[in-house]
Specification:
Layout: E1 3-8, H1 16-29, E2 34-39, H2 41-44, H3 51-68, E3 75-79, H4 85-94, H5 99-103, H6 106-114, H7 120-134, E4 140-142, H8 148-165, E5 173-175, H9 210-218, H10 236-248, H11 253-259, H12 265-291, H13 295-322
Parallel strand pairs: 1-2, 2-3, 4-5
Helix pairs in contact: 3-12, 4-7, 4-13, 7-8, 9-12, 10-12
The structure holds adenosine monophosphate (AMP) and tryptophan (TRP).
Tryptophan binds at residues 5-9, 40, 43, 129, 132-133, 141, 143, 147.
Length: 326
């Protein structure tokens, strides 16, 4: 069976963008492929983290995965830092990656602007990501649009290493969702909805209560036209709400435009809010139950056992090819 692997950083409360762009894909692919899902905690420390909060976020992310329907029977779920081979392989790959390629990564350029004393890890992060991916010979890597460049880098690294040392890695393809590939901020719909946004009014967090969700959606930025029509360039606010609606329902953009052709923005927003609440409420109920349960640790124990043996084998092969043995 073909394999997929993906992960999310436990770097803050998850957003509706994460759910639509990442978790919904996991739910789809767990029924189609052999699936590996991890918590990218080592990626999270590329920017400063409070240790107590980080630990809470790790547990919370796992509970969110499960509450959203990521099934531990169908997926191998693990914590990145527990598998020591990710960083070991990453080091070797770093030494096989030109410095200039990393400096060109869009996300690095953005993030270094926001962190005055940015770490060296912020630069080498895409190589750790390549290691996450290449260790498991996966076919596909489901990610949002913003991560596509990093998956392409992983492909380049794999191809370069294979050319130099013989077939070691499978070269994977990114899987980018079409609709809702990018969910935008509700206040500034030209920006991505992000965990690290400084204005919480623009961001729907998966654990926001119903009242907060409704308030945020009802006050989302729109335009003065009063036509529910998809036009990302001229009507980014309404188009973003249409994206959210189509991503969470079985409707297409055309269906939504047709359904609301005689409606005002208030009616449409109210329906978007109903839909978001109906998706998030059951997830939240399951989440709070799971957080207390010992099941979380059992799942990570099983995941680390399985992935360590796979990763060790790949690491040994790479070491041998590179000449790291006595
Ligand atoms: P991040 O929150 O940046 O760590 O992203 C975790 C995953 O969620 C990645 O696969 C992202 O591409 C995806 N993601 C994050 N924010 C959004 C968004 N606003 N719209 C769609 N996908 C997103
Ligand atoms: N860098 C990804 C993000 O910030 C998370 C991630 C780390 C990842 N390693 C990965 C995603 C491997 C897919 C595959 O969203």
């Amino acid at each position: 069976m073909e394999k997929v692997l993906t992960g999310i950083q436990p770097s803050g409360a998850l957003t509706l963008g994460n759910y639509i762009g990442a978790i919904k894909q996991m739910l789809k692919y767990q029924d189609m492929y052999e699936s590996y899902i991890f918590i990218a905690d080592m990626h999270a420390i590329t920017i400063p983290q409070d240790p107590i909060k980080l630990r809470e976020n790790i547990r919370s992310l796992l509970a969110i995965y499960l509450a959203s329907g990521v099934d531990p029977k169908k997926n191998t779920i693990f914590l990145q830092s527990e598998n020591i081979y990710h960083a070991n392989v990453s080091w070797i790959l770093e030494c096989l990656t030109p410095y200039g390629e990393l400096g060109r990564m869009t996300q690095f350029k953005d993030k270094k602007e926001k962190n005055a004393n940015f770490s060296a890890g912020l630069l080498t992060y895409p190589v750790l990501m390549a290691s996450d991916i290449l260790l498991y010979d996966v076919d596909f890597v489901p990610v949002g649009k913003d991560q596509k460049q990093h998956v392409e880098l992983a492909r380049n690294i794999a191809e370069r290493v294979n050319k130099k040392y013989g077939e070691i890695f499978k070269v994977p393809l990114p899987l980018i969702p079409h609709d809702g590939a990018k969910i935008c901020d509700l206040v500034d719909p030209t920006r991505k909805m992000s965990k690290s946004s400084d204005n919480p009014k623009g961001v729907i967090y998966l654990l926001d209560d119903e009242k907060t969700i409704r308030k945020k959606i009802m006050s989302a930025t729109t335009d003065s036209e009063m036509r529910v029509v998809y036009d990302m360039e001229n009507k980014p606010g309404i188009s973003n709400l249409i994206n959210i609606y189509t991503s969470l329902s079985n409707l297409t953009i055309k269906d939504v435009e047709e359904k609301y052709k005689d409606s005002n923005y208030g009616t449409f927003k109210n329906d978007v809010a109903d839909l978001v609440v109906s998706v998030l409420t059951p997830i939240q109920e399951k989440y709070y139950k799971l957080l207390e349960s010992a099941e979380l640790d059992k799942i990570l124990d099983a995941g680390i056992e399985k992935t360590t043996s796979i990763a060790k084998e790949k690491y040994e092969l790479l070491k041998e090819k590179v000449g790291l043995y006595r």
